[in-house]
Hints:
Blueprint (H helix, E strand, L loop, with lengths): L7 H23 L3 H19 L6 H5 L4
Amino acid sequence: MPNQSLRQSEIDSLQYISSMTNELVQMAEASRFPMISYLLGMAYAEAFDVLRGARPARHAQLSGNPL
């Protein structure tokens, strides 16, 4: 279930980021780039965790926008 504190546009962005980084992980693994694969995997995990609510969405703090 998506994080209820996120706007629909943020959910859409996180879903897209998760999808694209997952594909890039697979490409990096197939090309034998382990460090790139690892870093992309971390980006995938972070986006997925924020999306499902396992991590707080800190976007307002980082961007300077009010909640």
